[in-house]
Structures are given as C-alpha cells and as structure tokens.
Amino acid sequence: MFFILGIIVVLSSVIGGYILEHGNLSVLFQPVELLIIGGAALGSFLISNPLKVIKATVGSLLGILSSSSHNKEDYIDALMLLNGVFYKIRQQGLVSIESDVDDPEKSSLFNKYPKILNNHRAINLITDTLRIVMTTTIAAHELDALIDTELETYHEEILAPSKAITFVADALPALGIVAAVLGIVLTMGKMKEPPEVLGASVGAAMLGTFLGVLLSYGFVGPIGKNLEHAAGEKMNYLNVLKVALISFLGGSAPKVAVEFGRRVIPENVQPSFAEIEESLRKKK
After folding, report:
1. What's the average model confidence in pLDDT over 144-168?
2. Rounded to whole angstroms, how far apart are CA atoms 68 and 230?
3. Total domains in the fold of the chain
4. DSSP assignment letter at 95
C-alpha cells in the first residue's frame, strides 16, 4: 500500500509541479530516452550479478507489493511453537521430539502453525539446532556462535537483491548523462534547423539527465532500501527464534526462554507480557 502511495506522491509532486509552472507534458514523453537509460540499466544489472542473484532480485521485486512483514501474531505463534517444543523436551526428554524434528510437516506440534511451516528458513533453524543438540555434546556458547555464523551468511544472501538494486540506482544518474550526451550529439546535426527545432532537441536531450536522477532517487534507490528493510525483518524474526532456543538449551525454563525471545522482538510488533501469558493459557 505505502509502496504504491509513494510512487503516486513522487509522480504527482514532480509532474504536478511541472504543470503548475505551465510546462508542456508532451516534452516529457521521450520513449527513446527511457529505452537508452532503462536498457543500459538492465544491461549493467545483468553484467554485475550472477544468475542466482538475478533470480533472487526478480523474486524480491515481485513480492514487494505483498504484505510479507511479520506482525505481532506471527511472533506470538513462533513463541507458542517454541514453548510447546520446550515443554515436551522438559517433560519427556530430547528423544521425544526426534520424530517432530525429522518430519515437521507430520508433527502435531508444528502443524498447529502452518505459516511457520511455510517459512523453511525458520523451520530449518529450529530443527537443525535441535538435531545438533540431540546428536552432539555442543556447549551453549558454541551453539550460539554457530547460529550467529549461519545467520550472518543468510543475511548476506538476502541482502544481495537490495545491493543489486542499489547498484543500478547509483548508475542511473550517469546513464542519464549518457542519454543526454547522445541527445546533444543528435542536436549538433540539426544546427541548420530553426531555433524552435533546436530548442526542442536540446530539451529532449536534457531530459535524459532528469530521468536518470528521478529514476535513481525517486524510484530505484527507494526500492533497494525497501528490500533492505524486508531483509532486516526476516533477520529479526530468526533472531527471536535463536535467542529463545539458546536460552532454553542453556538451561532456562520454557517460560523464561519464551520471555527471552519476546524481549528481542521489535517494539512495533512486540506482544506484551500479558498477551504472551494469555496465549500460553489458551494453549494449555
């Protein structure tokens, strides 16, 4: 919603201001300039990124309009799932969750939270962490460091689309200048034309610089920042799971581990202590 609203605000402000100054809209319609700038930007994007980053970027751009951010209910569900796992381990031992960890899709614990099941990264973080605890004698601080390393690698991976888009945004002003220079070159071949023809040609050429800067700072750059924020939200969610897991596996009681997880949830979506208590009562 805000993504579309932002586009409308940018376009209405720029074009609206131009119209208020009695500008001629037809002058702004320069499809060849857009072809030069857009084509060069696409080419630079393809040159600078491997196939996996290109695919990830396309997927991220297609999903930018969807409401994919984690809300309060998502975090509550995550904490309730972990609470169920922790209590089962506390009451029946680590061996009791072996089947749940090996096949989460068939687990009665995990099936209560289908949205989490669809988050393969979150499920893998939970199950892989529990597997290593069941099969090794790894210390809590070593496990903490191991998960941190995993999350850092994942963070770099999900930031790749944002970096790729930001690179294109940085290149667009220069590509706009390229289009403008080509326009000036064409204008030089019209020196025998009347002033109104030359003026229109120069105006069309200068539009390249305008389009490059507008696309960079008005659209493409903000899209890159949007993808960066989306990556940050994914990391926040996984960090909550990590903190709760490390707390429990380090010896905390299930309820205390859940509280550790709750405390690191971003403030705007953080459930209160009372809300978690109410959710725990409902699950009993």
Report:
1. 95
2. 8
3. 1
4. G
The structure tokens listed for 84 are: 């169920």
C-alpha span between 216 and 140 (Å, rounded): 46
22 in a domain, yes or no? Answer: no
Q: What are the CA-CA distances from residue 161 to residues 27, 97, 212, 215, 238 (Å)?
A: 34, 36, 20, 18, 19
Query: Residue 109: helix, strand or coil by DSSP?
Result: coil
Q: CA–CA separation, 41 vs 170, rounded Å?
A: 10
Is residue 24 assigned to a domain?
no
Which stretches of the chain are assigned E, i.e. beta strand?
A: none
Report the helix count and the strand count for the chain, using DSSP H and E. Answer: 13, 0
Cβ–Cβ under 8 Å, residues 130 and 103? no
How many Cα atoms occupy the beta-carbon half-sphere of 120 within 13 Å?
1
Q: With residue 254 as reference, give the H or E element that holds it.
A: helix 254-263
pLDDT in tens, 111-129: 999 999 999 999 999 999 9
| Full domain range(s) for residue 216 | 29-284
Q: What is the pTM of this model?
A: 0.86
pLDDT (tens digit per residue) in 34-61: 899 999 999 999 999 999 999 999 998 8
Is 109 within a domain? yes
Q: CA–CA separation, 52 vs 199, rounded Å?
A: 46
On whether residue 17 sits in a domain, the answer given is: no
For helices 31-48 and 195-214, angle between their N-to-C axes, nearest 10 degrees:
30
pLDDT of residue 182: 86
60 in Cβ contact with 157 (< 8 Å): no
